[in-house]
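Table S2 (text version). Query chain:
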Amino acid sequence: MTAPTPAPAGRPLLRFGALSFAYFAAIGLFNPYAPLWFQSLGFSTLLIGTLASLQSWTRVLAPYAWSWWGDHSGRRVELIRLAAFGALLAALGLFGVRAAVPVALVVSLLFLANSGVVPLYEALLSQHLNTATGIDPARYGRVRMWGSVGFIVSVTGFGALLEGAGIGVFPWFVAAMNALLLAAALRLPATRGEALHDEAAPPVLPLLRQPVVAWFFASVFFTVLAHTSLYAFF
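Corresponding structure-token output:
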């Protein structure tokens, strides 16, 4: 385990806040408005729902794969940048696809890439905010707040922009937001974490058997279920 380090002052946390803002702003564009773009391509409601579900399908395994890679390499900042770069490349692929299968492939690649950002970002931020008494919750909250601000600004702002410009420009906006995400990732402070190995990890199954953990995952399941229905069909 890495020894506790003092929580950093302003500038590094501003960069974490910028990454949180950019990531959730990109999500705030894609989740509400991608179904409208899918509809403009002539897709059925069933197909739109299937495409909207791809984000959650990628979350089944991809975040754990990115996290495992980060733990075993200690190169979390570099992996965040790689994930953001992959998301930008996938976003650029939206310009050349119109049929259902290519669109599904590009959307899957987009979320396989960006699913690495949050788990690696959270681990890195926790490392930066680690003190002798644990993680500083006040500073964590101030950094994480910028994700909510980015989401709100994006949903509201892109609604107005798409209303005026038309849903056909949606891929341009997605590419721009993922370019912003990459720019924010490149501004993260360079750090090197200690590489972890499987033998150092605590067993997972006894933890999952605890009732409080089961209830936690049940609450997450229904929260995601509600949000998916809202984003895809409301």
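Notes on Table S2: The CA atoms of residues 61 and 112 lie 9 Å apart. The chain has ten helices and two strands.
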